[in-house]
Design a protein that fits this description.
single chain, 194 residues, 2 domains, 4 strands, disordered C terminus
Length: 194
C-alpha cells in the first residue's frame, strides 16, 4: 500500500482521492516483494516483517524508513540472487516515485507524469536483456522463444515456437486467414522432438 495512504489511514483519515500514483507505488512494492521473496529457499528471511503487521502506523513507519534511509541495507541487500540483475531498476523506480531527495510521498495533480519514466526504466532493462547485457539465467527466466511464421497447406498461418534450450516445444496452427478472413478455429499440436 502507498505510504501516503498508510499514513492517512493510521490517522483515521479515509477520504483520500484516488490517484494513479498509489497504483504505481503499490506495483513498486509488489516488484520489491517479488525480488526479495522469490528465487531463494523459503527458509531464508525476506526482511519485510514490518510491512505485514496489523498496525497501520508500524507499517507506515517501517515502509517509509525502508524506502528512504534503509533502502540499500533493508531492501537491495536482501534481493534474492535470482534478481541481482534488476537492482538498478529498483533504484531507478524508487527515484522516479519518490524524487531525488526521496521526499515526494504525496499524490500530485500530475501524477500520470510518472508513467513514462517508469515505462522507460523497464524498457531499458528489457533492452539490456535482449542485447545480452543481462542474461536470462541471472533472472532465472525460461529460455527465450523464437517464433517463425509460415503458411500451412490450407492457406492459414502457422506459428512454430521453439526454445533456445532443448526442452521440447509446440507448434501452434491456426486456420485464421491473415487479412480479414474468417476464423475457423485453431489447434495446438505437439512438436515431434525425436
Amino acid at each position: 500500500m502507498a505510504i501516503e495512504l498508510l499514513k492517512n489511514m493510521s490517522e483515521d483519515k479515509y477520504s483520500i482521492k484516488k490517484s494513479c500514483r498509489y497504483d504505481l507505488e503499490s506495483f513498486f512494492y509488489v516488484f520489491l516483494v517479488g525480488c526479495l521473496r522469490y528465487g531463494r529457499p523459503s527458509s531464508e528471511p525476506a526482511n519485510l516483517n514490518g510491512w505485514y503487521t496489523d498496525d497501520l502506523l508500524t507499517n507506515y513507519n517501517t515502509k517509509r524508513i525502508d524506502i528512504t534511509v534503509g533502502f540499500e541495507k533493508n531492501i537491495i541487500y536482501h534481493f534474492s540472487p535470482s534478481f541481482d540483475a534488476v537492482k538498478e531498476l529498483a533504484r531507478d523506480f524508487r527515484k522516479i516515485l519518490f524524487g531525488s531527495n526521496l521526499d515526494q510521498f504525496i499524490s500530485r495533480p500530475n501524477s500520470e507524469e510518472l508513467y513514462d519514466p517508469i515505462i522507460h526504466a523497464f524498457k531499458n532493462v528489457l533492452t539490456q536483456i535482449d542485447e545480452g547485457h543481462i542474461k536470462n539465467e541471472n533472472l532465472d527466466l525460461p529460455a527465450v522463444k523464437k517464433r517463425i511464421r509460415r503458411k500451412n497447406s490450407r492457406g492459414g498461418s502457422m506459428v512454430k515456437s521453439s526454445r533456445t534450450k532443448s526442452r521440447g516445444g509446440s507448434a501452434l496452427m491456426s486456420n485464421t486467414k491473415s487479412r480479414g478472413g474468417s476464423r475457423r478455429g485453431s489447434r495446438l499440436q505437439p512438436r515431434n522432438t525425436q
